[in-house]
């Protein structure tokens, strides 16, 4: 995610902006996240607005130390991406978009085989995040059943967490089928992942998102008020249908499979979130190698899909040369009003107006590897995707020197690795402290040990942690043969001290 806005744009606090004189085109505030593993049975944050069903089931441990994550302990350097978990969730998701474009109804079936015992299920409703709600957006789960039986559920006080007690403990690997129905009201006029304007609607993370992290448990951190991500989940298989007006184009996560009347059917093999944009976009289509790329521009915007398409193709090629093949079967980009900057999703990007003139485009494409393919706990370790996306973008655009020259506010110095709980009251320094300081440190580490050895190690990190949620320990493990690089990252607080 990137927040990029001209200094003259009205109506928004500008505390995040970089000095114009730097001519650094991206003016960013962070993607943050929510997410911390909580033991099964621990309280849902915030006061429930409805009572969960009474359960006296014993609390069972559902966390284990990150250090025993099996995905990362194989230190051998892979040359191909690790395969997705064969037991990953299967999500069948259906959206029906109102012709007004102001609301969406949805159903979702999640087939889940947790790798740890569970006595509850947790879904996140990111459409209830603070920014979306300020714009009049909100969502509610209207029905929920577990294995075919209607179930009561509790919603947290901040309305982003839905918890279902199972009435007992299910052992690891048990098959749990959850059906949900939900209603989504899209906000208007906000710089966020959900919105509608005229004949166009967009909704990223606009459905109840299973908040599981393998090996750790449920992700229940509160949302952030920043322009930032708050979603964390494991990759899942996706079957997506979108019912929208016949003249609409559908852009977003997944590969288009078929169109039946108003219903567009898409699928994806392993994605950790979903974005959809619908409307009468002007679309340019091409390929980056074998990967289909579509860029759609919303009506009324002066952006050129034909100009943006090859820029995305070039960005994909540049990142793929360093980190490995593009991780999804397709990439769709929707250029939209209201968004200032860009927001990344697996196989999909929401882009603001005029973002071909700054770092946003290359940054968002880099997130397909750093956040999409290699996930992270964005509440605990926001730097793992934001510093890396900024680093990757700087390598492509040659802006590393500029990043290295920027000052870091005192409250952010040597705190690259701080969690979003630390940045939440300090959002004005988040970009400089995490994006800039983190990217500059990664670039310095690369110079310190040499590009060849560093690039090999980072490629190994990406391949080993593909389709997983990586941790700083996973990165340190990948850099174990490059202690001077580890020292650089420790020096800025990106990696913990020994
Ligand atoms: Zn970003």
Estimated radius of gyration: 21 Å
Indicate the CATH topology: Neutral Protease, domain 2
Strand content: 25-35%
The CATH class: Mainly Alpha
The tally of strands reads 27
General form: globular
Structural class: alpha+beta
The average pLDDT value, as a whole number, equals 87
Number of domains: 1
Q: Indicate the CATH architecture.
A: Orthogonal Bundle
Unreliable stretches (pLDDT < 50, length at least 5) are: 5-74
Number of helices, where a helix is a run of at least 4 consecutive DSSP H or I residues: 11
Distance between the termini: 31 Å
Strand order of the largest sheet: 7-6-10-4-3-16-19-18
Helix proportion range:
10-25%
Q: What characterizes the major β-sheet?
A: 8 strands, mixed
Bound molecules: zinc ion
CATH superfamily: Neutral Protease Domain 2
Written overview of the protein:
With 498 residues, this protein is an alpha+beta fold. It has a single domain (2-491), classed as Neutral Protease Domain 2 (Neutral Protease, domain 2), CATH 1.10.390. 23% of the residues lie in helices and 29% in strands. An eight-stranded mixed beta sheet has the order 7-6-10-4-3-16-19-18, with no helix packed on it. Strand 8 (154-155) and strand 9 (161-170) form a beta hairpin. Helix 3 crosses helix 4 (360-366), helix 8 packs antiparallel against helix 11 (483-491) and helix 9 packs across helix 10. The protein is globular. The two termini are 31 Å apart. Zinc ion is lined by residues 1-2, 31, 363, 367, 386, 389.
């Amino acid at each position: 995610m990137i927040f990029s806005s001209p200094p003259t744009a009205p109506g928004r606090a500008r505390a995040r902006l970089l000095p114009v004189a730097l001519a650094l085109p991206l003016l960013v505030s962070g993607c943050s996240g929510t997410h911390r593993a909580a033991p099964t049975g621990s309280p849902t944050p915030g006061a429930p607005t409805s009572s969960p069903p009474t359960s006296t089931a014993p609390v069972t441990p559902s966390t284990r130390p990150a250090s025993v994550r099996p995905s990362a302990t194989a230190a051998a350097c892979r040359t191909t991406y690790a395969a997705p978990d064969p037991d990953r969730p299967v999500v069948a998701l259906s959206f029906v978009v109102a012709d007004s474009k102001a609301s969406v109804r949805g159903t979702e079936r999640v087939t889940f085989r947790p790798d740890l015992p569970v006595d509850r299920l947790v879904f996140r409703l990111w459409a209830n995040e603070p920014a979306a709600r300020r714009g009049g957006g909100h969502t509610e789960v209207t029905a929920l059943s577990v294995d075919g039986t209607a179930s009561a559920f509790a919603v947290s006080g901040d309305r982003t967490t839905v918890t279902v007690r199972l009435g007992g403990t299910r052992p690891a690997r048990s098959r749990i089928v959850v059906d949900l129905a939900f209603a989504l009201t899209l906000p208007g006029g906000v710089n966020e992942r959900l919105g509608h304007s005229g004949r166009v609607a967009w909704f990223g993370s606009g459905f109840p998102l299973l908040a599981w992290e393998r090996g750790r448990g449920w992700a229940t951190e509160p949302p952030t008020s920043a322009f930032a991500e708050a979603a964390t989940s494991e990759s899942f298989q996706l079957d997506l249908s979108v019912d929208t007006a016949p003249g609409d184009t559908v852009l977003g996560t997944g590969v288009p499979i078929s169109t039946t009347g108003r219903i567009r059917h898409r699928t994806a093999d392993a994605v950790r979130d979903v974005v959809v944009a619908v409307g009468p976009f002007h679309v340019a289509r091409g390929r980056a190698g074998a990967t289909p790329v579509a860029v759609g521009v919303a009506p009324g915007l002066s952006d050129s899909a034909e100009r943006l398409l090859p820029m995305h193709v070039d960005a994909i090629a540049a990142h793929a040369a360093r980190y490995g093949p593009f991780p999804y079967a397709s990439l769709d980009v929707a250029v939209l009003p209201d968004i200032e900057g860009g927001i990344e999703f697996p196989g999909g990007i929401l882009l603001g107006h005029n973002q071909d003139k700054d770092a946003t485009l290359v940054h968002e494409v880099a997130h397909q590897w750093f956040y999409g393919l290699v996930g992270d706990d964005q509440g605990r370790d926001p730097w793992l995707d934001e510093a890396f996306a900024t680093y990757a973008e700087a390598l492509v655009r040659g802006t590393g020197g500029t990043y290295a020259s920027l000052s870091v506010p005192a409250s952010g110095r040597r705190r690259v690795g701080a969690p979003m709980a630390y940045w939440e009251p300090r959002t004005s320094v988040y970009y400089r402290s995490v994006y800039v300081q983190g990217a500059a440190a990664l670039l310095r580490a690369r110079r310190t040990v040499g590009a060849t050895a560093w690039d090999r190690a980072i490629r190994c990190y990406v391949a080993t942690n593909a389709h997983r949620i990586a941790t700083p320990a996973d990165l340190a493990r990948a850099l174990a043969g490059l202690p001077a690089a580890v020292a650089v990252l420790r020096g800025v607080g990106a990696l913990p001290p020994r």
